[in-house]
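Methods — Computational structure assignment.
A single polypeptide chain was analysed. Its primary sequence is given first, followed by the predicted tertiary structure written as structure tokens.
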Amino acid sequence: MQAFGAPVLAARIRSVPEDFRVEELDGFEASGDGEHLLLTIEKRGMNTGFVAGEIARWAGVPEVAVGYAGLKDRHAVTVQRFSVQLPGREPPPLDALEREGLRVLAQARHRRKLPRGALAGNRFVLVLRGVQGEHAAIEDRLRQVAARGVPNAFGDQRFGHGGGNIAKALAMFAGKRVGREQRSMLLSAARSALFNQVLAARVADGSWDRGLDGEVWALEGSRSVFGPEPMTEDIARRLAAFDIHPSGPLWGRGAPRSEGACQALELAAMDDPTSLKLREGLERAGLEQERRALRLRPQGLVWRWLANDLLELAFALPAGCYATAVLDQLGRIEDAAARPPAAGGEGGPAPA
């Protein structure tokens, strides 16, 4: 989904966990009292679910008593908050929770469990290794990304290993029974795949960062949308200022909110047999039509060359957006953590 032309580099990422650093941007401040303990934890080589289980065992509570705002990858160094319910008692010593790869950076009392999605965004510091490409061309592309933003695609992790979540969603829609948590994941994957198809069509015709006839506009930093509304001087000004963005469908029951050329493009992009089955399945599941911004602007994007073939990028993204949307606009980037492990290596599934 290249919005700016041919790739300008080839590189590797996540050769070591430190190449992919993510810090959650908190969505609220701790209340300072209450029966929940908020823990800010730095973890390396551990996924979020594994750490949640470790916190539950440390606190002597069921895992359902532990909350977190977002899922973070195992193959990274990440900082995120967890909550654990401790009604009427003090927590065990923190050093009993800490170990190699897991540090507690802060703690505070709070009145409620930390719900999913309760974060403002994520700050990334990424290191690309083995960079091939002209430095001037790479930096020109980065300046384009900073100035225009990037297509707001859902990342591959939404679709499971090898994109297998789409086949699983089709099987679920055909009648296969799944658990509640898996059902939610597969519904999200189906919606995301359809959105990405519409976004790819908008990238192909160059309209991903400008309006079409019948456009529905998404407000920056919000899930709110308005329109359809035609292009006016005020809309053009707000679009240029990144106050609003064109939007695409998160599929559900009813007709899409868009009209005219915009709706025609959306329906044409989702008219193949697999997409029609996904649309029908989402409608039967009871989901309602929603919208998502087609454009994403990385906040505070900066870069520096650590060596001739070593490039560090730093930027922040709103919640629900993917760092791969930025990286994909640069070129071919191999995810070293996704390679099968060598014989005798330490690959395999994340801890559970």
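Note: The chain has a mean pLDDT of 93.
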